[in-house]
């Protein structure tokens, strides 16, 4: 999951550009720096909604188990998370094509908390011998080597592999290489269909959710919100959100293959046409806060799930009685991690990456 806040927009975060878009009057080469969208508050709300959906799907009972609603809610949340990741990473690279700086900032965002979590999980006997594959983010590839308590970290593997791939593309082809991403999205979806993989944790059967977000980013960059209006009613975004939930249900059949594009459509339509109350809700202070700590929420909730708080060794009733403690601990640790631990690494990454040539301080 791309999982970023503020000026670094990355699962699994606040959607903002790394700074004011410099103009041509400053003498900046347009191939290095292009005008950015600026902060899109709605994306904060989408990120908050996505992590809350994942937490609900993983931690709370949502209807009778035979309805499989937990899987649908969690998968829809992951689809939005990945869509936002592709969107925001593409925005970063549209603005600044310095690949070294891009990778430094991405790794400074993802690695510190992920590696800390993996190090803690490595003490579990069942996880011995699995650390290396997880540290290099290849554990989701067959044969899968995910850790107990770290099964959810497969999404970070998909994220990091996407970072490396898009960095190579832009390194070879420059900014124009980003326009290959829509074609890659369709190719991955075609591969999923051919392989009969409607839902998978293997990168080449899942990364179309990120690539669909990248495609949306390219469209939004070309047709700016505020400058273009979609001839659709505001409530259509709610219909798309419900459709995404349906397309995430294990019994959805062929509709599961459309999940990446429905997620991208829901996010995209909301930027151009959505009810006022919807914008207010998704742009609210609580939504921004949840978005800020979303990456830590995602990583930490799975790790705590294998502790006493997870209650895997007890019956269902007692397990759910412990859930308020688990959720409270997850939010508390995520707050501390985001503002006292991860923020220091993010700041270091920014210093090491530096600014684009000609960018204002």
From TrEMBL:
GO terms for biological process: polysaccharide biosynthetic process. GO terms for molecular function: acyltransferase activity, transferring groups other than amino-acyl groups. Residues 1-28 are annotated as: Disordered. GO terms for cellular component: membrane. The keyword Transferase applies. The keyword Nucleotide-binding does not apply. The chain crosses the membrane at residues 69-89, 110-132, 152-173, 178-195, 232-252, 258-278, 290-311. Residues 12-24 have a biased composition (Low complexity). InterPro entries: Acyl_transf_3_dom, Acyltransferase_3. This is Acyltransferase. It comes from Novosphingobium piscinae.
């Amino acid at each position: 999951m791309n999982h970023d806040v503020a000026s670094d927009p990355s699962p699994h975060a606040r959607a903002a550009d790394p700074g004011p878009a410099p103009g041509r009057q400053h003498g900046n080469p347009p191939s290095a720096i292009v005008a950015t969208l600026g902060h899109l508050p709605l994306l904060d709300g989408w990120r908050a909604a996505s992590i809350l959906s994942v937490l609900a799907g993983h931690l709370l009972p949502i209807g009778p188990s035979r309805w499989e609603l937990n899987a649908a809610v969690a998968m829809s949340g992951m689809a939005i998370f990945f869509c936002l990741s592709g969107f925001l990473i593409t925005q970063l690279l549209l603005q600044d094509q310095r690949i070294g700086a891009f990778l430094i900032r991405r790794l400074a965002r993802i690695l510190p908390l992920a590696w800390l979590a993996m190090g803690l999980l490595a003490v579990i006997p069942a996880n011995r011998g699995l650390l290396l594959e997880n540290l290099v983010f290849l554990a989701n590839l067959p044969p899968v080597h995910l850790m107990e308590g770290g099964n959810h970290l497969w999404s970070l593997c998909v994220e990091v592999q996407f970072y490396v791939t898009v960095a190579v593309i832009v390194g070879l082809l420059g900014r124009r290489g980003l326009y290959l991403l829509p074609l890659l999205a369709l190719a991955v979806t075609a591969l999923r269909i051919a392989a009969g993989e409607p839902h998978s944790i293997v990168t080449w059967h899942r990364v179309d959710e990120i690539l669909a977000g990248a495609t949306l980013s390219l469209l939004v960059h070309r047709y700016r919100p505020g400058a273009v209006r979609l001839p659709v009613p505001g409530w259509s975004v709610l219909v798309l959100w419900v459709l995404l939930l349906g397309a995430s249900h294990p019994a959805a059949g062929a509709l599961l293959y459309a999940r990446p594009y429905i997620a991208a459509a829901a996010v995209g339509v909301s930027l151009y046409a959505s009810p006022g109350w919807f914008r207010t809700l998704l742009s609210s202070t609580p939504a921004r806060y949840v978005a800020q700590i979303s990456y830590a929420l995602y990583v930490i909730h799975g790790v705590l799930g294998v502790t006493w708080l997870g209650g895997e060794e007890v019956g269902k009733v007692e397990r759910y009685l412990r859930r308020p403690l688990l959720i409270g601990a997850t939010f508390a640790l995520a707050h501390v991690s985001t503002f006292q631990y991860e923020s220091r690494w993010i700041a270091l990454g920014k210093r090491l990456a530096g600014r684009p040539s000609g960018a204002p301080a």
